[in-house]
């Protein structure tokens, strides 16, 4: 599997989504059908996110370690890999070094 490298015919929102004092930053894109994705960067550190909708996180560049809420297993992900997070749940993500780039798709 490979992560997407570009999107066409979308609207990009200029206002950034900024979390954890700027250590996680994303921008939203909106497709013609109204669906959304976010394109983001995660700087080194450990962070926890809650989910309202189910999400698919595709890693575009870099590496991260992920632990889904309610599970004990920690999984490493690199560019071209993805993981899914259930709705009304969450995940912890750690970037040990460098920058992890991602595309987040909201499912359902």
Can you tell me the CATH architecture? Sandwich
Largest sheet: 7 strands, antiparallel
| Count of the separate structural domains | 1
**The CATH homology group name:** Jelly Rolls
Morphology = globular
Helix content: under 10%
Write a structural description.
Strands 1, 2, 3, 4, 6, 9 and 11 form a seven-stranded antiparallel β-sheet that branches. The chain has a four-stranded antiparallel β-sheet with strand order 5-10-7-8, with no helix packed on it. The model has no long low-confidence stretch (mean pLDDT 95). It starts with 10 loop residues before the first strand and ends with a strand. It is globular and about 40 Å long. It has a single domain, classed as Jelly Rolls, CATH 2.60.120. It contains no helices and eleven strands. It has 108 residues and is mainly beta. It has strands spanning 11-12, 17-19, 24-30, 36-42, 45-50, 54-61, 63-68, 75-78, 82-85, 90-95, 100-107. 16% of the residues are buried.
